[in-house]
Amino acid sequence: MNKIVILGSGLSGSTAALKLAMQGAAVTLVSPAYAERSQSVMAMGGINAALNTKGEEDSVEQHFVDTMQGGSYLGDPEAVDNLVRMAPGIVRWLAEIGVNFTRDEAGRVDLRNFGGQKKKRTAYAGARTGKQIMAAVIAGCRKYEAAGTIQRLTGWRFHSLILEGAECAGAVIIEERTQALRSITADAVIMAVGGPNGVFGHTTGSRLNDGYAAGALLAQGVEFANLEMVQYHPTTVLTATKQMLITEAARGVGGRLFVMKDGQPWYFMEEWYPERGALMPRDVVSQSIYKVCNELKLGIGGGQTVYLDISHLPKAVIDSQLDEVVTICRTYLNLNPYAEPIPVSPGIHYFMGGIKTDKHHRTNIGRLFAAGECSAQYHGANRLGGNSLLGAVCGGMVAAQSAGAVTAVDGAAADEAGRKALAAAADELERWKGTKASPLSEYAEIRSELSTLMYGSMGIYRKERELLGARRRLAELEQRAAEARHPYSYYEDRTLYANLLLAKAMVESALERKESRGAHQRTDFSEKNDRQFKKPTNARVAGGSITVDFG
Fold first, then answer.
1. C-alpha distances in angstroms, 468 versus 377, 409, 452, 460, 537?
2. How many CB atoms lie within 10 A of CB 126?
3. Which of 40, 322, 340, 342 pairs as cysteine with 11 (C-beta 3.0–4.6 A)?
4. What pLDDT shows up at residue 115?
5. Residue 141 has pLDDT above 90, yes or no
6. DSSP state of 341
């Protein structure tokens, strides 16, 4: 019986746990909070699959083309081919385990339009697709938890890999509340820790996905790909604590983007892109909003927002498919979307870049796998709406199959490596306790400066001068962080360091990609350059520095 450790209990991690348990593996599922609080629950729009039930002659081949084109051909074609071919079976499996998909008049799983796709292929469950899918997968896991096959450790986070030679032999984990440390040896480890939202601060993602794990893995020699590819979702609203998403489903069912021009509503996406209008890929829509607000100076009140109008849609459609949008507008904006347009702006939503994995979800470290938003192979330079939930489930399944097939680790060697890794972590914690604490305000200031710096240099449009300035400023922030000590949290101390390291890798990747492609737009290199750059960036730590190459 293989022993597998999974870090993260969102859709990728929970799917991997369920599939491994079904294969008879012993699974330890580690997460900072209950799976019901994972970011996957927040996904509203749907999951893509070429079910071809709308008379549009859809196919997995067309899903493949849309995904590769949408990602500007940076996705791994073998991995994407596997993704789209598995998709119809994944949707059927989800329905079988209890996902309450919205059905059409014939009783089939209903499909709707989503950005960047020419066919209706996005299956959905009202406005709460992610929550419905997570509920079904969690329920499947509970049966194996009751049987003891899945052990769940909630309130714990990843600290570091246990490395035995060139292979992973488990993980050291930390309980955030008590700062207790623990080592778990395993035959394989699956990272499913989500995107590094903490690097930017205000994003649409969960604040639980703080980016610590990614930075810590980078420091330990794990390779990353396409870190410059950060997706700005075109329709978000800023609240007191975070960016909140206005789902792409609002445009999928007919919502329209406009600004006022010469006293009249101007539906700029429909004029610029008459074939698909506001359902162009997210990078294109976000870049269009940027141009409207910054070049044409037509943003609402001269700012960075435009209007999204759903008031013309039938009330029944809004009630059944966009009720979450209504709740957000009424709760956070004091706005009635049945009668008023919604002011929206682009906000950071998804990280296409992450741990470099192959079509089997293997990393450059033996016995270490990654799945979900933290891994990079499906989405290239821009993710299509509806492909995130698909990538999460597919990635969890493939990683489970790959991890379940590894041979048993040398138990004695793994245990010795685990003892050494735990002792090193404990020594570092004791040194931290012995240093003088800094005011919490200093940490808050560094965090705020990091967020401002990354939004400024890694925005929808980028240029070398700002990226070089970010490189210099990150070095200064890193020095300040090294000379400070968080007043009460060792984990927060490590997280800031990890975020700064990952931010440096993102900036270096953006500097090296001297072209414009997908979510990476350079004003100083405004053209796409397939000859030199139609390949992923690879970032790693070598000799204490970030190195980036292509291939």
1. 28, 44, 15, 17, 18
2. 19
3. 40
4. 86
5. yes
6. P
Hey, which residues does 175 pair with through a beta bridge? Answer: 156
Scanning 122-261, the segments in alpha helix (DSSP H) are 129-147, 212-219, 249-252
Beta carbons of 22 and 16 less than 8 angstroms apart: no
Active site residues: 282
Phi, psi of 41 (to 5 degrees): -65, -25
Contacts of 128 (CB under 8 A, 6+ apart): 44, 324
| Domains identified in the chain and CATH numbers | 232-348 (3.90.700.10), 435-542 (1.20.58.100)
Q: How many CB atoms lie within 10 A of CB 531?
A: 7
CA gap 403, 407 in Å, rounded: 9
d(CA 279, CA 117): 8
Q: Are strands 156-164 and 342-351 parallel, antiparallel or unpaired?
A: unpaired
pLDDT above 90: residue 178: yes
Per residue in 103-140, pLDDT (tens digit) is 999 999 999 999 889 999 999 998 889 999 999 999 99
Over residues 323-327, the mean pLDDT reads 92
First to last CA, the chain: 37
Q: Is the model's pTM score more than 0.90?
A: yes
Q: Provide the β-strand partners of residue 542.
A: 545
Q: For residue range 200-237, what is the model confidence (pLDDT) as tens digits?
A: 988 999 989 999 999 999 999 999 999 999 999 999 99
Give me the amino acid identity at 412: A
Rounded CA separation 449/456 (Å): 10
**Structure tokens given for 472:** 């210099």
| Sheet of strand 545-550, all strands in order from the earlier edge strand to the far edge | 375-376, 354-356, 224-225, 537-542, 545-550
The alpha carbon dihedral of 163, 164, 168, 174 has a sign of negative
Q: Are 34 and 8 in contact (CB under 8 A)?
A: no
Cα-based distances in Å from 169 to 115, 288, 412, 484:
41, 47, 11, 32
What was the pLDDT predicted at 207?
A: 87
C-beta separation of 214 from 500 below 8 A: no
Place of tokens 């949707």: 91
Per-residue three-class SS string for 204-230: CCCCCCCCHHHHHHHHCCCCEECCCCE
